[in-house]
Amino acid sequence: MRITVPTILTLLRIVLIPVLVVVFYLPYPWTNFAAAAVFAIASITDWLDGWIARAYNQYSAFGAFLDPVADKLMVAVALLLIVQVHPTKWMALWAAVIIGREIAVSALREWMAELGQRKKVKVAAIGKIKTIVQMVALECLLYQAKFLGLPIFSIGEWLLAAAAILTLWSGWAYLRAAWPVMMKNAHTGAA
Q1: Strand pairing partners for 150?
Q2: Residue 169, Cα to own-chain centre: how many angstroms?
Q3: pLDDT digit string (tens) for 5-16?
Q4: CB 57: neighbour CB atoms within 10 A?
Q5: Measured between alpha carbons, how far is 164 from 168 in angstroms, rounded to an integer?
Q6: Positive or negative, the Cα torsion across 145, 148, 154, 156?
Q7: Are the CB atoms for 106 and 72 separated by under 8 Å?
Q8: How distant, in Å, are the alpha carbons of 23, 34, 126, 183 from that of 157?
Q9: CA-based angle 55:53:42, to the nearest 5?
Q10: What pTM was computed for the model?
């Protein structure tokens, strides 16, 4: 197994997940800032590992497997922490939509890969926009406090709603791209 710099950054992102949980629950007034900082570092490593992999051709099969797993784990844990502290119907709904879509699209990609059709469900522009909006939303929601008089938490709530809508849109785009293959396999009786 080849361990590349992008893979190390992805592993760092996984290590940051329990750090985020511990920092989030510390009984100090600065923990919201620290939790937001940990999430920001994880988000930056997500961007950086992809950039390094492309710029320096440091791809590995292990890294390609691990990167989306790390991303989904970090997002799911952040959403669970936020919903636990702010258990509103809307927050729970947005979290359920985002986590549910991530599971469904991961399963769809795995199935399409087994059929040799993974390129049909590659990451699209809408998925990248969704990721940016989602990361900024989670950053705001973890920070919670006002910044320069701006209601950061409220901004985060609206951005999370937007991210959930983009999540559904991008999920639909992936399903639509995979639909012809799914229908072909349904008619031929393939698994």
Answers
A1: 147
A2: 15
A3: 999 999 999 999
A4: 8
A5: 6
A6: negative
A7: yes
A8: 21, 19, 20, 38
A9: 115
A10: 0.87
